[in-house]
Predict the structure.
Amino acid sequence: MQKSLNAIKYLIYAGIFAIPFLVFIVSSSMFFPFITGKNFSFRIIVEIMTALWLALILFDERYKPRKSLVLVMLAIFVGVVALSSIFGENFYRSFWSNYERMEGLVTYLHLVAYFLVLSGMMKTEKVWTKLFNTTLFASVIMSFYALVQLYGNFQIHQGDRVDATLGNASYLAIYAVFHIFLAMVLFYRAKDFKKWVYLFVIALESFILYRTATRGAILGIIGGLLISWLIIAIASPNKKSKLKHIYLLMGVAIVIVGFMFIKTTSFVKNSPVLNRFATISLTENTTESRLTIWKMSWKGFKEKPLFGWGQENFNLVFNKYYEPILYKQEPWFDRAHNVFFDRLTTNGLFGLLSYAGLFGVALYYLWAKRRKTGLSVEDSAIFGGVFLAYFFNNLFVFDNLSSLILFITILAYVNFRAKGNNATVSAFVSGGQGETIKSDYGKATYAVVIGAVAIFIIYTVNVPGIKTSRNIINAFKINGAGDAKGTFELFQKAISYNSFGSMEAREHLSSFAMQVYGSPKLDQPFRDKVMDYTISELKKQNEQYPNDIREMIFLATVYNKAQKYDEAIALLNKAINIAPKKQQLYFELGTSYLNKKDYENGLVILKKSFDLDQTFDDARRIYAVSAIFADKESLAEELMKDHGGLIQDDERFLKVYAQKNNIEKITAILKVFIEKNPTNIQYRLNLAAVYLQKGQRSKSVEQLEKAIEANPSFKKQGEEYISKIKAGLNP
């Protein structure tokens, strides 16, 4: 029995020490490769660890978690998230979330389980230090990966802002912030050469943080450090330490003041990082959009103040209270880009208070109860600093799994120190004196039941979602290879698993269906089959998410492609009742009317879209194109008079004039396209065809010759066209 229990302990510890390395998982075989692989791996490891831990405490109760206000507040917070999900707008989405985020209630339940396992197993300062060093080691590898991104061949996914294996510069930034503070804690504790090791880690992580150019995280760490050093300067019993930290505070103050004097210089303006700080203002596009979204969030909170709209349902608030000015940013937001507004909107007042309570109880133990915890002034100040830095960062961005894991890990450490550093169980116990193993082997039956439940949970929570994701990716691959029927089968298979990923599968199926329906190469019965199936599945999606206008747009777009205009119009009018200021809805509704040849209503609808915000250039262009389509070119001319006229480098203008067979306008637009894209031979081929249609054969040949010059691989085909034209034929 003892050997079995020791094996269980080692397996649990193996899981705990494996989790810091999950950040390196980038699964190209799964949808959203930077997100899904990490999340599914975390869930499976936590599920296994939790089952093993529950079995362990059946036989040895000393592995139960320590109780403190931290544990109580975490339980309250997750309880509120659960209640808001149950009583919110869409429990299914609240529970599961989607592939892009994977931060539904199910994830928070796993984070609680992870906290409990840590609290139960991590019983000594020594084992905690090992875990901190392990996660620091992982972060150093991550930092070197980011360095290779900067100076090597690894792809950066956000311009010049490094993102490493997290896929987002903001995610990497807060990841670095946590590890800078952890390295500082260990720096203060270390002696001799080890101090230099941790100092190197701090310097490396700080450089990576700087190259993420993430303002919230950088300002957060500055604020956290200032408060940490101020506390040390005030509370440290060591006069030398006091003086050292006063100098550090003065140094930071000088840097901040100095930056204010040089922020308008060319040096700052030419720096992609420093310029982001120099240009911070209330009128900046990013700041303006954030303020707008926060106002929308506040409106959503006032409508459902206590428990909110439900976890992961911010998108409903965004759509309902959408402001047209947001066309400058993304059209679809599922986050307020402020964790506290997210909590306020999705989990209500109780959600915000309980979330803030996690920071409050942590700081209470670190600062008010420092002597009880046995922490040094430096330890309590630095650990408090990381919570403050994280708090400030969350004013501007949103959480992700890697930051949540680190947050929960440090909360668990505070929970460990809350009762003082009086360990009752040694790390990696292998038996011997002091064991309190119960001899009731009847408990083995319960252990078997726990194992069976764990297997069921592992399969139910993870396998359908994983299979759905992989089938979506495989569908993309073979569709790219031209296998339409195989692609359709894979989409059907993905949807058949009935996982939370079915939403993603149906959305991409809609794009595929429109592609297939418009392809004359495929037989009509197959095209009809794909379209009918897609409409049926999107209807199910709309029933499952009845107030989600994004899902309505997917179905309406497919309706329009299938020439079911009345169905599209009815659905889009319903969507507009939910989100009356969403321009995209008017675009699609206007298209429905125009396709139906109801030009009068089409133009009325598109004018409404334009009038919502007349600075929205795309709305102006769509309105103008529609006016041309409806034979009201004078209206189009008036709309575009001060905006470049009707000769635009815009495919929509080209297409409408092609439908009108306006050769002169087609020619003029193609010339603009060619001027801006001289190597694009398709534009030259189109212009050559137009010249041929006009009987200007020499000009047609000239364009073909230029196409050959731009793309030598076109030479054989181009010369065939030229020879036919010169022979008096029309190829």
Remarks:
- The chain has a mean pLDDT of 91.
- Residues 56 and 652 are 66 Å apart (CA to CA).
- The two ends are 85 Å apart (CA to CA).
- DSSP finds 34 helices and no strands in the chain.
